[in-house]
Amino acid sequence: MTSARSASVFLLLSWFSTAFAQETAQQPPDAGVLFSSHDLLNLTIEAPLKSIFRQRGQESDDHDAIIRYTGDDGTEVTMEIGLRTRGKFRLKRSTCEFPPMRVNIRTRAASSTVFAGEDKLKLVTHCHDGREHYEQYVLQEYLVYRLYNLFSDMSFKVRLAHITYVDTEEDRDTLTKYGFFIEDEDNVALRSGWEALTVPQVPPSYYDQAQLNLVEVFQYLIGNTDWDAFKNAPDEESCCHNVKVVGDMIGPVFPIPYDFDFSGIVDTRYATPDPSLGTRDVRQRVYRGICRPREDLDLTIQVFQDRKEEVYDLYRSQTGLDDDVLEDTIEYIDEFYETIENPGRVRSRMERDCRRT
Predict the structure, then answer these.
(1) Number of domains within the chain
(2) Average pLDDT taken over every residue of the chain
(3) Hey, which of 14, 121, 142, 196 has its CA 20 to 30 A from 322?
(4) 209 lies in a domain?
(5) What is the pLDDT of residues 161-170, one digit of tens each?
(6) Strands (E), 86-230
(7) What's the N-to-C CA distance of the chain in angstroms?
(8) Residues spanned by the domain of 154
(9) Domain boundary at 182, 212, 244, which?
């Protein structure tokens, strides 16, 4: 498809998506209560987990479930929800016995609760019951979302939870594990003053270039190659791969990254690098940003320099993170800053590998 045709298709579909969203999407006045705090949320989910986990397709059904937690006044809050499996790679039984889920918040039931104003939420789970390192992956991926929050308000907010799962079908033992909720993409867009767009692809020139380069350098920081801001993966219907597109039909358009379990900074046991890059390990960084003038790249690098201490503080202050995991992560972040603080390394490790369009 030519770039001119790509642009035409993009504009047309953006118009339809934006027009529909403007008519139907209204952010509730109490939206965002869940994500207004970083305090650990302790709650219980009671659900027919056996039946839920049996459905591993993209069209799984909602199952009735209950969330319980103790409110600020000390009383128990009980809320009815719908619960289903979600995801792609982590949805496979061979990857996760305890898959990620989507929580369908029922508006009336959520009134005056911490979930007020929410609709559908992604819940990242621990993947395996008896493997402690998988719970560390939950904390690590949660921190990656928090990490990007440091650099851009146009990002997914997250809320960490300590969740006790009660299987109402009594097929598995009750257990308590870390998990985290991810803000809905429509709320991210509305909070930023834009609309979430559904498009087949996005030509690089259509993006706000400062925001695009911020994403590109951030993906390099975390060692992630499992993303594409311009087109979808073969098994995806719309753009883009692990990047949400928000903006306006006449511009600007912004990329918002998500889904970081294949990144080097998380380093899950099942993660593999993009085979087209010829690397052997996800910990090996490869810069996949668009080639741009050095002065533009330097402006983006300065954003990461300005937040350097906050980056380290974020990880060092996280309760529950194993000492060994913290040490490995700090070393990995050190390597990033050693690169961007050395002009020669920026030239050899970033500018050399940039993507020419």
Answers:
(1) 2
(2) 90
(3) 121
(4) yes
(5) 999 999 999 8
(6) 101-105, 120-124, 158-167, 175-182, 195-196
(7) 14
(8) 41-182
(9) 182
